[in-house]
Amino acid sequence: MKRRSKTSAARAQWTKKHLLGIEDLTKEEILLILDQAEGFREIIERAIPKVPALRGKTIVNLFCEPSTRTRTSFELAAKRLSADTVNIAMAASSFQKGETLKDTVRNIEAMKIDMVIIRHSSAGVPKFLSGCTKAAIVNAGDGAHEHPTQALLDVFTMRKHLGRIEGLNVSIIGDIAHSRVARSNIWALKKLGANVTVSGPKTMMPARMEEMGVRVVYDIGAAIKGADVLNVLRIQLERQETPLFPGTREYVKCFGIDKERLAKHAKKDVLIMHPGPINRGVELSQDAADGEYSVILDQVKNGVAVRMAVLFLLSVSK
User: Fold this and answer.
1) Which residue segments constitute the domains of the chain, with CATH numbers given?
2) Could you tell me the pTM of the whole model?
């Protein structure tokens, strides 16, 4: 594995109060998070995976959309740093009584909290809340806009396995139009010097994607060929107002990743990634999801370390 240079990251200092998206970050700030996460990755492997870095801090998980991995990962990250955590689910909150999101955040801020991790179905909500509270805001996914910590853990995983990001060929495959993961990954990968290809049905591809500096292909074989990493996305049915492809069978036939398709087109050491949840047998077959080149579970583990790094840097910058 190639030795990484931390010179540029070492010169960077974290000065941001919030983490609202990857688009707002510089290359040096991204590298700073990744390098900080390296240390926390070692900590979570210990017999007692806990440090007192955020003792006395209170962090609120405010999830207005269903979530398992992201919410649990943030909660574990906070607890590994010894922070106190409060989980608020939309279905059990004052939202059901007509309270606005702004009032909810300001009310919990009055209880002396330090940070709010927010997931919401509408794009721009984290940025809106950042102007309503003195607490730090972390975007855990806003509509089809961004999912910054997912992109950070994805590039961290790539760097961990391949030793670098610069010069890698990364193909993002699936429902590009409705994916906040795709957008955040593209921003992160391009800033770190990777070559990015996107592929999926034309009905799930935004117009003028090339303006983001990516290659667009509609042939799955072309997307797989030469790729160092395949980041496979779930079809975002919950964000589609009308069906955008004939059916599951047709999607699998044209864009599903399976053992046969990998054997025909993929490099022998390609990494297979997925942000979850996986629709097994649709975007990924069983053998591809669980095969020797899959690093999906490693993504989950790395997510805790990366989110520890984000929470720590936001805390010390205040």
Assistant:
1) 6-144+301-315 (3.40.50.1370), 148-299 (3.40.50.1370)
2) 0.92
